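Continuing the series of single-chain predictions for the mutant panel. This is the parent chain; the variants come on the following pages.
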Amino acid sequence: MHLQGVVPPRPTHRLNVIGFFCPIPVSEAKKVLKNMSSGNVLELLADDPETLHDLPVLIGRTNHNIISIEESAGEYTFLIEVNQ
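Parent structure:
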């Protein structure tokens, strides 16, 4: 889910929650995002399909933005821009 021709920003932080299931991916993302600075970009790697619903709900309650969500071989990569 990228805009055509737009290169996404490079992640400044990475969180790998592959192998963890609800609620761990979202709670870990919440902790990491809380300690990041405005303008930073989190790359979150997950394989729990619930993150496709739960993570956007979490981000919707903040000023942060989901830049992209990609799926490959059952793994999901989220890019999240931090806005304080």
